[in-house]
Amino acid sequence: MTTVTTAREGQVAVISFGDAPVNSLGAATRRALVAALDAAQADGAVTAIVLAGNNGLFSAGADIKEFGTPAMLASPNLHELIAVVESSGKPVVAAIEGSCLGGGLELALGCHYRVASAGAKLGLPEVKLGLLPGAGGTQRLPRLIGVENALNVILSGEPVPAPLFKGSPLLDGLAAGAALPEAIRLAAAKGTAAAGGAALPRARDARIAEPALDALLGFARNTVKAGFANYPAPLACIDAIEAAATRKFEDGLARERELFAGLMMGPVSAALRHAFFAERAAGKIADVPDSTPLRDVRLAAVIGAGTMGTGIAINFLNAGIPVFLLEVGKDALDKGVARITENYAGQVKKGRMKPADAEAKAALLRPTLSYEDIGAADIVIEAVFEELGIKEQVFGRLDAVMKPGAILATNTSTLDVDRIAAATRRPADVIGTHFFSPANVMKLLEVVRGKATAKDVLATTMKLARTLRKTAVVSGVCDGFIGNRMIEQYSRQALFMVDEGASPAEVDAAVEAFGFAMGPFRMSDLAGNDIGWHIRKRRYLEKPGMVYSRLADRLCELGRFGQKTGSGWYDYRPGDRTAYPSAVVDALITSYRAEQKITPRRLAAAEIVDRLVYALVNEAARILEEGIAQRASDIDIVYLTGYGFPVWRGGPMRYADQVGLFGVVRRMAELAQNPHGDPAFWTPAPLLARLAAEGGSFTAPGARP
Ligand code: NAD
Questions:
Q1: Tens digits of residue pLDDT in 176-223
Q2: Ligand 1 interacting residues, C-beta cut-off 6 A
Q3: Cβ distance 221 to 238 under 8 Å?
């Protein structure tokens, strides 16, 4: 359904357009807008036209669902629509309310006049999807607000409050209230003037006179090269703006179009668009419709005031939800409360929060030592020690005290959520909420769906994740869930490579050059090497056939747990998080290799990257096939938001698709020739083998394993 309607206000035709929620400028809307503009043009009683969005906003831009489809280019495309507006013989005034973004702003820039309400926000966010504003935005905007301001708007991609443009030719009026009445008044006046022969101002005709052009462009280029080396879009935006300042309008437009096409076809924008859609898709659960009734979450409780419990509590406080924090002993409770208070003090000190705001948030905390206090909470999240016996005990208590309908969540990272649920008489109310450390900072939340978890419990938890500003991905129950189950294989490979001859620093450097935020050894030093040790000790008992390098165990036997002990794979100095090479670790590695009778060899960076990334991909294929993850793009979101995988590569699944699954499997067959390590490691997961053989893909639209 496309809604474009024309109403008459005296001699002004008011064309209102757009469908909820964001009035995107899809093919049908563009067609209907051109028809309405033509009709107004042909109507002798009309002297001027106002373009206004429905639904309280102008338009959030192009319909991104059309990206890469024929509909995006279907005539009239956005260029053609804007040309119809700009070449109108009757003045066209944009009445801008709410969001006016991307193609929406480009359409407004094609109008002869623009009136915005003070609450409106204008911006060109294309750079965030690895693109540039491709419908004249890079050409018209600098003509109206100057090169420097246009660079800021286009390179940041951020929406800018309309009042900041007051006084520039971008806005012909700023309305304290609604923009429409003022736009109609302006249109009526300009319509009369135009009928009398007055010329219509067009952004394309404005000239850019910027004496410091070279300096501005040079500075912008250096800044984006330093900060966004792997992203081609910011540089292309600067090139397009340069064309606006140095070429005739039509030539600049052609340059913009050429640069846009290059970005659109390139891998980075494709990856960023994949990530954008992946994040949206992650919130959808096949058998849990959006209409699933939700439970109210107005009061929360957290059990355990350690590292994770306090971080989780802060999430609730920040969202304005009062939260009980329960501990076994007063000392631990006091420490937890102090950690929360210090967090808020830090926020205030850094200027990120006003003191009164921090105080109000902290005041929502309800520390307690008694389960009797917390029974009225709508959700309780357990974050006690990682031991099944203790968790079972805690859930037994919760079962006894929590009101009917309360959601009982566990933050376990490795234990079986179904067994924890079985410690209660209400397993349908039990769910896993796997936060990442630091829990008040990290975006990712793995929501673990137990075999008995009720649909409304799942839907409510997903909604709560949004309230807490987390990106939630649903995982089934398995050891390590999605993220940690994959990272275990990645870590095994990292250690095999050190056995074979790479240094931890070489492994870290290779994968950091690939784009990971942090290599496996620096990451392990940060998280604590003892965590992996603890897990491996369990593995040696559970899966005696699984081959591990014992090097990491030797490191832990030396007490080198990482940053928290001042030494791990690297050495650390007090108050300094820099990882320094360690002679102790070098000696440890040398003696381990000798003991294993390994003659060390040099490993190329490409081999290191392939082995680490394909270790992730192969395990991910199993996770997908087992139904632990709902879709490949969910796995990408886990890695992009929780594990520092380079966003511009779109995630491990998207990366594998880009390499081509056929090539991935062939490379794995080569790697399997390596006599060191686990001979079974590189057997492709059945799903991966099948997709590779069929020429299939994990993430292409419609790909459904
Ligand atoms: P922690 O040792 O820092 O904190 C645990 C807290 O629980 C302690 O303060 C302890 O006094 C308290 N506690 C123990 N038994 C209790 C009981 N019966 N009732 C109330 N409080 C009790 O541990 P953590 O790192 O915060 O981990 C907590 C949970 O979160 C574990 O299940 C862990 O696997 C999981 N987790 C940890 C991380 C991480 O990076 N640390 C990440 C994700 C998940």
A1: 999 999 999 999 999 999 999 899 999 999 999 999 999 999 999 999
A2: 303-309, 326-328, 332, 383-386, 390, 394, 411-413, 434-435, 437
A3: yes
